């Protein structure tokens, strides 16, 4: 929902209140993505050593794969495409071995974006097509939105106006779906919890409180 400041505050609160190694690494990786999206390079660099996949405090393969993805994302934003490809291929290798479908689809679509930026439309298509297929099974509308935008550009480059229009319509549909979901979420009483970091749980309507309690009890 692009609530980046609230996300930053929540992840920092998690780091300040937990000594659990897996959660600590998970929060740092997500915080790194918040900083990358906000172009906050100094803050990203300050936690760089904590998310280096070569010396993560966690032994989790999924977190190490995610760390390579974050490295690839940083390299992509900085235009270091060859490095980005190397990191993302490491992510794919580990994500495929662990059946991490969301990470696999995200890495594929980012690789597709990189190849498109390099003018290699064939390799871009080879990445984006399976990314879209996998994202539709999860489902992950964010990846579908990203992939459909790339597919639209690829079909335009190939001169296939029919498929270009089809990709555009799908992109429009995914965009409207996300906007609707974001609006609905923002209207829920639980939305206030994005600003809760300490103290007692804020008072919510009975039905909302039950929803939160059930969510906290899920494994």
UniProtKB/TrEMBL annotation:
UniProt cross-references to InterPro entries, sorted A to Z: MAU2 (IPR019440), TPR-like_helical_dom_sf (IPR011990)
Protein purpose: Required for association of the cohesin complex with chromatin during interphase. Plays a role in sister chromatid cohesion and normal progression through prometaphase.
The UniProt record lists the keyword Cell cycle: yes
A GO-annotated cellular component: nucleoplasm
Protein name: MAU2 chromatid cohesion factor homolog
Top-level taxonomic group: Eukaryota
Entry's transmembrane regions: none
Subcellular location(s) per record: Nucleus, Nucleoplasm
Natural source organism: Rhynchophorus ferrugineus
Protein family membership: Belongs to the SCC4/mau-2 family.
Keywords linked to the UniProt accession: Cell cycle, Cell division, Chromosome partition, Mitosis, Nucleus, TPR repeat
GO biological process: one example: chromosome segregation
